Amino acid sequence: MLDVDQAPESPGLYAWYVSFRAGPHDWKIKPSADGDQAIEGFLNLLRKYAGYYEPLPIDLSGRGSYGAKWEGSLELDYPLREPAEGVQVGDEDSLQRLEMLMSSLDTEERRRVMSTILQKASPVFSAPLYIGVATNLQERLRKHRLDYTRTHDWLREHPEDAETIRGRGKNFGQRAAARNIAMEHLEAWIIDLADEDNDEATKKHLRNTAESAEWLLHRLYSPILGRQ
Fold it and tell me: What top-level branch of life does the organism fall under (predicted)?
């Protein structure tokens, strides 16, 4: 996101991804009276990254007998969420998987390897956070950066608004800032359609085709920070 000024001023599609970042200070052993503190610290780093992809609750409504109305929200039992004190998150299978994950982080070398895998996973293995279409890619990506910056600055003064913006943010920049994703971890990948914009017939239909492709990609990949 820091480098969106380098994007071409041409039509195309784009997708935002969030990269995993870790360094030696994250995987190096941190001895303590209770063992290696780096295990829990690295797990918390994974939890934070997983939180970028946590689905929002689903609002439900229905009608019962005699016109009774039922309303509420359904929240995913997300095993990588930071557990509240005394509250168990995840079913038995998820908790077993979480224990396996912790055991895979029990040495410095294992944590380093996990970092390498996750750093290489985006964007090859990871789902996009957001998919969009633009007449001018540079202009559109700059707008995302501006939205992010304004929201990030607002939340520094009004942190209590983060949850509301996380669920109801009007654009990608707002929703990304509300999930506390660092700007330098956000990466935009583009499909430049400049070469397709070569005659009047193509110009007339290019935007329509790109928007149809965007709609299809949303249904295929369900970007977590896209319009719900």
Answer: Bacteria
Residues 178 and 197 in one domain: yes
Spell out the per-residue pLDDT of the chain, length 228, in tens: 999 999 999 999 999 999 999 999 999 999 888 888 999 999 999 999 999 999 998 889 999 999 899 999 998 888 888 766 545 555 677 778 888 888 899 999 999 999 999 999 999 999 999 999 999 999 999 999 999 999 999 999 999 999 999 999 999 999 999 999 999 999 999 999 987 766 665 766 888 899 999 999 999 999 999 975
Query: Residue 190: how many CB atoms within 10 A of its CB?
Result: 18
Identify residue 85 by its one-letter amino acid code: E
**Helices and strands in the chain: count of H runs, count of E runs:** 8, 7
| 14 and 137 Cβ atoms separated by less than 8 Å | yes
157 plus 177 within the same structural domain: yes
Which is it for the CA torsion 153, 155, 158, 161, positive or negative? positive
Please tell me the total number of residues recorded for the chain in this structure. 228
E strand or H helix that includes residue 137: helix 137-157
What is the DSSP track for 26-43? HHS--EETTEEHHHHHHH
Residues of the domain holding 53: 25-107
- Residues 128 and 15 occupy one common structural domain: yes
Residues 226 and 15: their CA atoms lie apart, in Å, by 10
